[in-house]
């Protein structure tokens, strides 16, 4: 489904590495399809996909990348887009147990068990899984000081490679993308700063921002410092997600 990658730089090499070693492909549905129950309801926290589909004019067959994929359902911002409007895309989740659960849902997506680097290169970090980490219940990764804390079922650690966002987009053939969801516990802007924007075309970026009002204001301003010059405008907030549209 994804075209062969031509190697021009280091991000291309990393994209090829992702394709060959990490990419679990089911965008064509050959591995099965998510079974929508008769009483299916949107699992998102605040109705984010309903607002997104409205802003996109009820577009069908759009594309997304959701970082913080959790188990594929919990607080998912992309599932409604997939099952109701035919969208597909990529789910990124670093925690092994959650990623295995995600794959078993047979969503029509490509899954990648990794995290997104805060540098334009591959980073090796420690994945720290602990039941007591309440902040990780959202299924996202928090990369601070060389470690990532995520929800897990025991207090364990393992090393994991984080890849640049551009390499993930290239690996999945999504350098042109409708919606990028970043739910990565405070490093959203750091990730945005790594993107070679001349190589991508992303219509909407959704950032999770939460905390005291001064923190929210600071993070939103930091995001606009990166996104404003690129033509993005802040359009709305749904729950703790802030939407920027180009």
TrEMBL record:
Residues 67-233 form the Methyltransferase FkbM domain. One of its GO terms (biological process) is endosomal transport. It comes from the Eukaryota. One of its GO terms (cellular component) is Golgi apparatus. InterPro entries: EGF_Rcpt_Signaling_Reg (IPR053202), FkbM_mtfrase (IPR006342), SAM-dependent_MTases_sf (IPR029063). Coiled coil: none annotated. It holds the Pfam family Methyltransf_21. PANTHER family: PROTEIN STAR. This is Methyltransferase FkbM domain-containing protein. It comes from Notodromas monacha. The lineage of its organism: Eukaryota, Metazoa, Ecdysozoa, Arthropoda, Crustacea.
């Amino acid at each position: 489904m994804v075209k062969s990658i031509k190697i021009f730089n280091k991000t291309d090499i990393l994209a090829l590495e992702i394709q060959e070693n990490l990419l679990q492909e089911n965008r064509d549905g050959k591995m099965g399809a998510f079974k929508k129950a008769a009483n299916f309801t949107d699992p998102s926290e605040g109705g984010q996909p309903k607002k997104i589909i409205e802003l996109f004019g009820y577009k069908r067959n759009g594309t997304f990348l959701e970082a913080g994929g959790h188990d594929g359902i919990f607080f998912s911002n992309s599932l409604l887009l997939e099952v109701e409007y035919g969208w597909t895309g990529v789910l990124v989740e670093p925690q092994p147990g959650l990623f295995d659960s995600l794959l078993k849902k047979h969503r029509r997506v490509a899954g990648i068990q990794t995290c997104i680097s805060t540098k334009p290169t591959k980073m090796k970090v420690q994945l720290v899984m602990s039941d007591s980490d309440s902040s990780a219940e959202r299924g996202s990764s928090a990369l601070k000081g060389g470690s990532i804390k995520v929800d897990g079922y025991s207090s364990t650690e393992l090393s994991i490679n984080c890849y640049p966002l551009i390499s993930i987009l290239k690996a999945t053939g999504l350098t042109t993308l409708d919606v990028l969801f970043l739910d990565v516990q405070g490093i959203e802007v750091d990730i945005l700063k790594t993107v070679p924007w001349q190589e991508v075309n992303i219509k909407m970026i959704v950032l999770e921002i939460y905390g005291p009002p001064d923190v929210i204001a600071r993070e939103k301003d930091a995001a606009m410092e990166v996104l404003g010059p690129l033509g993005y405008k802040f359009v709305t907030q749904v729950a703790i997600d802030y939407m920027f549209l180009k």
